[in-house]
Write a structure and sequence with these properties.
Order of helices and strands: HHHHHHHEEHHH
GO molecular function, one term: phosphatidate cytidylyltransferase activity
EC number: 2.7.7.41
Number of domains: 1
Structural class: mainly alpha
Strand order of the largest sheet: 1-2
Protein name: Phosphatidate cytidylyltransferase
Strand content: under 5%
Helix content: over 70%
Subcellular location: Cell membrane
Number of helices: 10
Shape: globular
Keywords: Cell membrane, Lipid biosynthesis, Lipid metabolism, Membrane, Nucleotidyltransferase, Phospholipid biosynthesis, Phospholipid metabolism, Transferase, Transmembrane, Transmembrane helix
Radius of gyration: 19 Å
């Protein structure tokens, strides 16, 4: 068997296992079964998101090739401040999904950053533009991801919104790949991602909706309607992949990193999550008023 395939398989299994352990009660149950010091699931999830955000930010800085100005050294302090503000809300149960103008503006900034990347990439050749883009593209999505799960410090329950979000993203990618491989003829974005086709996209949407139907039926305690979440994931997950592909193409980079052997970097693996997490967060806001 090809060594690269073995490497990709092992690292992929480890990656998926870490995501499952940190986004479901299984992580705390496993650690508490072997450790005398108990840990709550909320801390495992927080550590996971913090780690992914730090590595993802560093990868984005390397991709965009900052110059020797002050901007490179300002990125992490700004990211820490933003993440700290969301972290306080995470630990004080302050994600009520009310209509807050500052949240809507922050979510709008993500959309503006995406449009800028595709329509006005020259703006990102300046270090000031790189600083703003890194903060918006990496720090904000991971910060909003802290608000997706529900947890209780009283009975140590931890909801599974993020776990099923990952499952739907993985299924969307897999179904789109398979549908594109067997039926793909019309290229979606040949200059950015030559392998993506509209047939693959349609297959990803249809089959992800089927899976989300079963999630909605058998996981009624999840926040929101997961048929809607499934449609949003299937719609925006490919956009997340195109955004990261365009970012790497703009700066002439093949992979964001190599922290996951055979799979690339954190941004390579979580490109869809970076777009889907804030989109689902926005849906949870709007869902309260529908």
């Amino acid at each position: 068997m090809d060594k690269n395939l073995i490497q990709r398989t092992i690292s992929g299994i480890v990656y998926v296992a870490i995501i499952i352990l940190c986004t479901s009660p299984l992580g705390a149950q496993f650690i508490n079964s072997i450790s005398p010091e108990p840990i709550q699931q909320q801390y495992l999830y927080y550590l996971l998101i913090t780690f992914l955000m730090v590595i993802g930010s560093w990868e984005c800085i390397k991709i965009m090739k900052f110059g020797k100005g002050y901007e490179k050294w300002v990125v992490f302090p700004v990211i820490v401040i933003i993440f700290y503000m969301f972290s306080k809300r995470y630990f004080y149960h302050d994600f009520y999904f009310d209509f807050r103008l500052n949240e809507i503006l922050a979510l709008a900034l993500i959309a503006i950053a995406v449009v800028t990347l595709f329509k006005y990439p020259n703006e990102l050749y300046y270090d000031s533009g790189k600083l703003i883009f890194t903060v918006i593209y990496v720090a904000l999505p991971f910060s909003f991801a802290l608000g997706l799960p529900k947890y209780s410090t009283y009975n140590h329950t931890f909801s599974l919104e993020v776990l099923f979000l990952f499952i739907l993203i993985w299924s969307s990618d897999t179904f789109a790949y398979l549908a594109g491989k067997f039926f793909g003829k019309h290229k979606m974005a040949p200059k950015i991602s030559p392998k993506k086709t509209w047939e693959g996209y349609a297959g990803g949407v249809i089959l992800t909706l089927v899976l989300s139907y079963f999630v909605e039926q058998y996981q009624p305690e999840l926040r929101g309607n997961w048929m809607v979440v499934g449609f949003l994931v299937a719609t925006f997950a490919p956009l997340g992949d195109l955004v990261e592909s365009q970012l790497k193409r703009t700066f002439g980079v093949k992979d964001s990193g190599n922290i996951i052997p055979g799979h690339g970097g954190i941004l390579d693996r979580l490109d869809s999550f970076l777009i889907c997490a804030p989109v689902v967060y926005l849906y949870f806001i709007l869902e309260k008023f529908i």
